[in-house]
Design goal:
disordered N terminus; 3 helices; 231 residues; disordered C terminus; 19% helix; five-stranded mixed beta sheet; alpha+beta; 10 strands
Length: 231
């Protein structure tokens, strides 16, 4: 069920405002590349555009100099400036995600499940602006040969990986769209390729004909070439 909570040092390259968009939705883009540090990079979406962020939060370690209490104020300031329509997060732990929900304006909500089931372990949570988007359906699956088995891991990777997806109604445009958020393995190329194939097949199954926004930490350089079948 949805996890609903209202309310330093950032990991290098943690903010990913570039995203993969299938079927072409209007997206906000920076007007200038040289804005001041106090100004948002993109800011709240204008018109029918969407502002989508993907962010690997780095799990809530208590070790300095990158402890979560040290990083949280910078994250809160960033989100207050940007106010994305959708925010896909990776590595967040349940208390950490509750902190983010508290730091966002009260009209944000979020959906997610820990990769160990319930609130256990890291999430691939999806935050969204409730003034604009209404969730119509959502689910989670695990990147393995048994994707409906919570916590399953069958491709030789040492860390369990998963996907969270949400089908939204956009009240501004009247369009339905699907947001998919994931975190691929960081060590096994085989697991990453199998994950991409499963993700492709699943999206084709639960989102036929709908616009799809895919966010995530894919643990692959943007220029890397893969042998994965085309989408």
């Amino acid at each position: 069920m949805p996890r609903r909570t209202h309310g330093g040092m950032l990991r290098p390259l943690g903010l990913v405002v570039a995203l993969l968009v299938l079927f072409g939705l209007p997206l906000s883009v920076p007007a200038k590349a040289d804005r001041g540090s106090e100004a948002p990079l993109i800011g709240p979406a204008r018109g029918d555009a969407l502002h989508v962020m993907s962010y690997n939060l780095r799990f809530a370690s208590d070790r300095t100099p990158n402890s979560w209490p040290q990083r949280r104020p910078a994250m809160a300031e960033l989100l207050r400036h940007e106010q994305p329509t959708v925010l896909g997060t990776q590595e967040g732990l349940y208390p950490q995600l509750k902190d983010i929900a508290a730091d966002l304006p009260g009209y944000y909500d979020w959906i997610g499940e820990g990769r160990g089931g319930g609130s256990r372990d890291e999430f691939t949570a999806v935050f969204y602006d409730t003034r604009r988007l209404e969730p119509l359906a959502f689910d989670h699956f695990w990147l393995s040969d048994t994707p409906t088995v919570v916590g399953s891991n069958t491709w030789g990777n040492s860390v369990t990986r998963m996907v969270t997806w949400v089908r939204f109604a956009d009240h501004r445009t009247g369009v339905e769209l699907v947001v998919v958020n994931t975190h691929f393995d960081d060590q096994s190329d085989y697991a990453r390729r199998r994950s991409a194939e499963l993700l492709r097949d699943r999206i084709n199954g639960f989102a036929p004909g709908l616009p799809v926004i895919l966010t995530g930490d894919f643990n692959t350089a943007a220029a890397a070439r893969t042998r994965t079948a085309s989408w």
